[in-house]
Amino acid sequence: MSTILLVIIYISFISLGLPDSILGSAWPMMHLELNVPVSYAGLATMIVAGGTIISSLFSERLIKRFGTGKVTAISVLMTALGLIGTYMVPGFWGICLLGIPLGLGAGAVDSALNNFVALHYEAKHMNWLHCFWGVGATAGPFIMSFWLLRESGWRMGYATIGLIQGILVICLFVTLPLWKKMEKQEENKESEKSNTRISELLEMRGAKPALIAFFCYCGVELTTGLWGSTFLVDTLGLSAEKAAKWVSIYYLGITVGRLLAGFLAIKLNNIKMMRLGQIICLLGVILLGMPFTSYCQLTGLMLIGLGCAPIYPAMLHETPQRFGKEQSQGIMGIQMACAYVGSTFIPPVFGFLAKGMSFKIMPVFLMIFVVLMFICSEMVNRGTKKPNNI
User: Fold this and answer.
1) What does the alpha-carbon distance between residue 109 and residue 93 come to, in Å, rounded to a whole number?
2) For position 281, what pLDDT does the model report?
3) Which residues belong to any copy of the Major facilitator superfamily (MFS) profile domain (predicted)?
4) Residues with pLDDT less than 70, the chain
5) DSSP conformational letter for 312
6) What pLDDT score does 389 carry?
7) What does the pLDDT read at residue 385?
8) How many Å apart are CA 365 and CA 342, to the nearest integer?
9) Phi, psi for residue 64 in degrees, rounded to 5
């Protein structure tokens, strides 16, 4: 039973990654057809991000009321309808409107699945699941590029991924009884407990530094991914094509790193995996700032990707250990919200600073957040009470 459900969750993570990277791939053609400035992509992504933050914060209430299976199925359904709706939308404001269900669906399912896996499966699966998310995020642009070369263009790209999500919705509704069986043992305990207020969750020991760590991690990952190519062009004089290839290697490092981290997690606990990733990430940032040879910066970029790989899955999987199973979903939702806030706002802040100063400040900027993430992680590790490993 748990094996079948795990397969569905793996497929869900691939499906989760598919829509995350397609707007950027399609936007050069979309903004021309929709007759809006290229900068409007930022508004569309902000609306989606806002939806993910809101649904993450309220995920505990939804899951306690309806269960993880139903919340996941309905959330993916919202995502599928948003994607298929984008296929039919006549103008830009329709895309903004459809960004609401896309964001709300993504945030709820992300929080639900991460907490479910943290409670019911080993750490290796958390790493491999996020590796599968990378597979989906990589496949999305390929699907979109296939249709961009044809007359149907970006609309069919959205429709295709929407239909893939629709197939997943059917699988999720069919397997709802399996989800209920997995959660049945905890159902009575959960029904006795009322929803914990966000203010109460924030007062839990270690909660605030944990949230800062999530905020910092996503800021580092997204800032490197968004501005890494510009940094290489501006500081090393690489061509845009070569710089783009190196940023692809950065993302490949995250995906392959999570595959390898799954095997390492069999021997190392979550805390050791976090520390290992943070040390590698810190080494990568240091090399990124070395002025001696371009190979230092390029190796640094790759190491940042490898270092990032185990950190996020380990922090997620450690949540029930840090704060207890009863409060894990509430904390998970807030953690996901803080992660989305970091990924939404830190990259633009760096872009603003780099425009006024220089892209050479990127290693220093990243260093601040990596060090802050390490300090906050250690504060949580030492300040929270940990029961036996799940």
Assistant:
1) 25
2) 95
3) 5-381
4) 1-2, 152, 183-196, 292-293, 383-390
5) H
6) 40
7) 53
8) 14
9) -65, -30
Q: What is the pTM of this model?
A: 0.80
| Amino acid residing at 338 | C
pLDDT of amino acid 211: 94
User: Do 2-192 and 198-383 come out as alike in CATH topology?
Assistant: yes
Q: Which two tokens stand for residue 208?
A: 């605030």
Q: Which fold has domain 198-383?
A: Growth Hormone; Chain: A; (1.20.1250)
What are the angstrom distances between the C-alpha of 327 and each of 59, 74, 179, 334, 352? 12, 23, 19, 11, 38
Closest CA to 330 of 146, 124, 24, 118: 118
pLDDT score, position 332: 87
Domain ranges of the chain: 2-192, 198-383
* Tokens coding 87: 């296929």
Looking at domain 2-192, its CATH superfamily turns out to be MFS general substrate transporter like domains (1.20.1250.20)
Q: 73-77 long-range CB contacts below 8 Å, 24 or more apart?
A: 73/169, 73/172, 73/173, 73/176, 74/105, 74/108, 75/104, 75/105, 75/106, 75/108, 75/109, 75/112, 76/12, 76/15, 76/105, 76/109, 76/165, 76/168, 76/169, 76/172, 77/105, 77/169
Asked whether the CA dihedral 25, 31, 37, 43 is positive or negative, the reply is negative
Distance CA 288, CA 73 (A): 42
* Separation CA 388–CA 390 (nearest Å): 6
Q: Which residues does 223 contact at the CB level (< 8 Å), separation at least 6?
A: 346, 347, 350, 362, 365, 366, 369
| CA dist., res. 294 & res. 301, Å (int) | 11
Alpha-carbon span 134 to 20, nearest angstrom? 10
Positive or negative, the Cα torsion across 47, 49, 53, 58? positive
- Phi and psi (nearest 5°) for 274? -60, -50
Position 387 scores a pLDDT of: 46
pLDDT of 276 reads 95
Looking at residue 1, its pLDDT comes to: 52
